[in-house]
Amino acid sequence: MTELKELMLQPTRRTLAVAESLTCGHVQARIGAISGASEFFLGGITAYTLNQKVRHLGVDRAGAVPVNCVAAAVAEEMARGVCALFGSELGLATTGYAEPAAGVPVPFAFWALAHELGGGRRTVRSGRVECPGATRGQVQEKVAAAVVAELVKYLRELRG
To answer: Which domains does the chain have, with CATH numbers?
Structure first.
C-alpha cells in the first residue's frame, strides 16, 4: 500500500475520494490504513440505498431502478459523483451483491474509477468482480482489494 501513496503523490499530488455500496467502507479502510493517507485521501461515502446514491452521488434513478443499482453504469456514475462531492481528481466506486439473492446465484460487483482531468474532461474505467462460493465478508474484501489494485494499475500507467 505504500506504493499507492507514492503513486498518488508523484510526480504531482493527486486527490482521491471513495463511494461504496457493496463494500460498505472496506475500500476506505484500506486507503485510510496507509500512513500519510491524509496527504491525498479526501474522504468517502457509503451510499447503500438508491435514494442516497441519487441524492449524494448524482446516480440516475431511471437507469438504476431496472438493474437494482448494480451495473457498470451505476458504478461509473458513483465514481464521477464522488469526485464532484469531495472535489477530488480521482474517484473509486463499488456496487453489487455481497451474497446470492433472487435471480443472483453468485455474488458479484462492479467497480469504477473516474479521473477528472479538468475542463470538463474525464476518463472512467470499470469492471466486474465475480465471487463464486465466497461469504459476504469475503466478497467485500475481494472487491475492495480489486478496486484498489485497479487504482494502482491506473496510476502506474499514468506514470509511464
So the answer is: 2-159 (3.90.950.20)
One pLDDT digit (tens) per residue for the chain, 160 residues: 679 999 999 888 999 999 999 999 999 999 999 999 999 999 999 999 999 999 999 999 999 999 999 999 999 999 999 999 999 999 999 999 999 988 999 999 999 999 988 777 788 899 999 999 999 999 999 999 999 999 999 999 988 7
The whole-model pTM stands at 0.95
Q: Give buried/exposed letters for 137-157 (b at 16+ CB in 10 A, else e).
A: eebbbbbbebbbebbeebbee
User: Helices 50-57 and 72-86: crossing angle, nearest 10°?
Assistant: 40
